[in-house]
Design goal:
heterodimer; A: alpha+beta; Arc Repressor Mutant, subunit A; two-stranded parallel ribbon; about 15% strand; B: alpha+beta; 2 domains; nine-stranded antiparallel β-sheet; four-stranded mixed β-sheet; 12 helices; elongated
């Protein structure tokens, strides 16, 4: 069985599609606005992306499911570890300012420090 | 050529603005140093006590003028602000620096002025272009391009971020909190309606701590302060003090947000908070951070969480008081010095700096002279600037004569001194008939020596400029009054 990997936010979008398909793209926009707060353009972007991945199809303004929920996995998008700044200023500054430059050894020492305090507290 | 003339017009408009920004940077640098020292001194205290002081730096970076007060830092003995004060502003770099025959800049500390001024190119009167004018144009353009780069970078990342956040999804039942793909760490976004964005799949405790931390940012107004500080940084991008201030301000805001969260926590809960911080700072992928500050700030934050203590009440109150005084000291300009030392030229309270006088009236001209001062005056400006007194051609602003290293000591004199020294009777030469203007109606009289043949007299609230001649014959070398001009304040 082929499995598909998608991002968390896409999974949330797909949940709405699975629950309601087949559904008109206009109605899908309304649902997404209610449940996710997404704008129309965001919804159509998501539809296009899911079509490209072959999860759904959008014909005559109707969205149909091609791949069932069981075959889809949420991608391990642990963004903490990924640190995809890709030129974003807040992301860059955030990392810059928090100075996440812990070495393995440093982290270990801090862990010990915290554990010592937990026992005390 | 069209491009060149456009650039010329731009720099004509923007050079004064650039000089104003430079002067604001200079004033702010002192504030930055003072705040950093204060912060160092009270580093054991919660950040909320030192954070408000950054407002002084922001004020200096934003506003070129301020009121004068006796509380000002610049009243301290090490500062000599007299050449700098200009009205309510401070001109560390004179606005006409590119026009000066001997360009000078001031630091506020007399001993180091020359080190800075000495590095400036001196114009060569024979050359057609003053090198400093060229530098002014080049630096103004660089400054503008730097700001443009900041604006572009800001705009591009804003649009990118906006696009990325458009597919964020609300966290169940919590308002204003969203989960989003592709963000490296949790943050708050938005000024008017700030929202908290979290990466997906945080563990429950970590999420609780992060939300509390981000809410503390919103409550503390950090979402407004940070973009504002960033704007100021964009204008002062060339100023290392502004960068230092920006990063310290940001780290202080982080610390204050942390401290708001664990102010009411028990020791054990604070250790949990520290553990959340640690889990956010994965050691595996930290190398992307482009610049390190030695001990990483996350480690500092964790240690802060473990050792946090509320300060004693008396200490907190003392620090608040000190901070208030320092705020006042950093945001106000030096008070005018007492009239005795400063008011030599005219009784109007004169701010330290440059005072310009124009010819008002010729009170006396020796009959030996063939020169008559024309009705419209001498065409000269008389400028007091720091320890100098300059005579400047009013039309070309070229310095015709400069008296330097003046200490401005003023010595009181009476009518006898006046007669004796300026209008001495040497009947054997037949010059006894010369009589100076009557000074009996003036109550306060004092003089300042400019050099061997020039004096300034202060007669109540008038300023007289006196040229001396020298006797010949048996009294060779003794001075007598050649001419007296009454000066008036010029604008």
């Amino acid at each position: 069985m082929q499995t598909y990997e998608i991002w968390d936010s896409e999974y949330r979008f797909m949940t709405i599609v699975w629950d309601n398909a087949p559904i008109g793209s206009g109605a899908l926009c309304t649902l997404c606005l209610q449940q996710l707060g997404w704008k129309k353009s965001t919804v159509y972007n998501a539809i296009r992306k899911m079509c490209e991945k072959g999860l759904i199809q959008n014909e005559n303004a109707t969205v149909r499911v091609l791949v069932p929920r069981e075959q889809v996995q949420r991608e391990e998008s642990d963004a903490f570890l990924r640190r995809t700044f890709s030129g974003s200023l807040p992301g860059f500054l955030n990392a810059f300012l928090s100075g996440r430059t812990l070495s393995e050894k440093e982290a270990e020492e801090l862990k010990k420090l915290i554990d010592a305090h937990r026992k005390e507290g | 050529m069209a491009v060149l003339s456009f650039l010329e017009r731009v720099t004509d408009c923007m050079s004064p603005a650039f000089l104003a920004v430079l002067n604001m940077s200079a004033a702010a640098a002192y504030a930055v140093i003072a705040v950093l020292l204060f912060r160092l001194l009270f580093r054991r205290l919660p950040a909320k006590y030192t954070l408000p002081l950054w407002a002084a730096v922001g004020f200096r970076l934003l506003c070129p003028v301020s009121i004068k007060s006796v509380f000002s830092l610049f009243n301290l003995g090490i500062f000599d602000m007299s050449p700098i004060a200009e009205g309510n502003g401070m001109a560390f770099i004179p606005y006409d620096v590119a026009m000066m025959r001997e360009p000078k800049v001031y630091t506020g500390i007399a001993a180091v002025n020359d080190a800075f001024s000495g590095s400036l190119p001196v114009p060569d009167p024979a050359a057609s272009v003053n090198p400093l004018q060229v530098w002014e144009v080049i630096f103004t353009l660089l400054w503008l391009f730097g700001m443009l780069a900041f604006a572009l970078y800001g705009a591009v990342s804003f649009v990118k971020m906006k696009k990325r956040l458009s597919r964020a999804v609300p966290l169940a039942r919590e308002t204003g909190i969203f989960e989003c793909d592709g963000i490296p760490s949790p943050f708050v976004w938005g000024i008017i309606r700030p929202r908290i964005y979290l990466p997906f799949r945080m563990d429950e405790t970590g999420r609780r701590h992060v939300i509390a931390h981000e809410r503390a940012h919103i409550e503390g107004g950090d979402t407004v302060i940070k973009p504002f500080a960033f704007l100021l940084l964009a204008v002062h991008w060339f100023d290392p003090f502004a960068w230092a201030a920006y990063f310290c301000l940001c780290s202080d805001m982080e610390r204050r947000a942390d401290e708001r969260v664990f102010a009411d926590m028990t020791k054990g809960e604070r250790a949990e908070y520290g553990r959340s911080l640690l889990s956010l700072a994965s050691p595996r992928h930290g190398a992307l951070s482009p610049l390190g500050f030695g001990e990483s700030s996350i480690a500092r934050r964790i240690k802060n969480a473990l050792s946090f203590q509320k300060p004693a009440k008396w200490l907190a109150e003392l620090v608040i008081l000190l901070a208030a005084v320092l705020l006042l000291a950093l945001t106000t300009n030096a008070a005018d010095k007492a009239a005795e030392s400063e008011g030599m030229h005219g009784a109007t309270a004169v701010p330290g700096g440059r005072i310009a006088y124009a010819f008002s009236e010729c009170l006396y001209m020796t009959p030996l002279s063939s020169y008559h001062v024309p009705e419209e005056g001498t065409g000269e400006l008389y400028i007091r600037a720091g320890s100098e007194f300059l005579i400047v051609d009013a039309a070309t602003m070229e310095t015709k004569k400069a008296f330097q290293d003046l200490s401005w000591d003023s010595i009181a004199f009476d009518e006898a001194w006046y007669e004796q020294n300026l209008f001495a009777e040497h009947s054997e030469n037949g010059w006894s008939l010369f009589r100076g203007p009557d000074i009996s109606r003036y109550e306060n009289r004092s003089y300042t020596v400019l050099d061997g043949s020039h004096l300034l007299l202060r007669m109540d609230d008038e300023t007289w400029y006196v040229k001396l001649g020298q006797h010949g014959g048996t009294h060779a070398g003794e001075p007598y009054c050649w001419s007296i001009y009454r000066l008036e304040r010029a604008n």
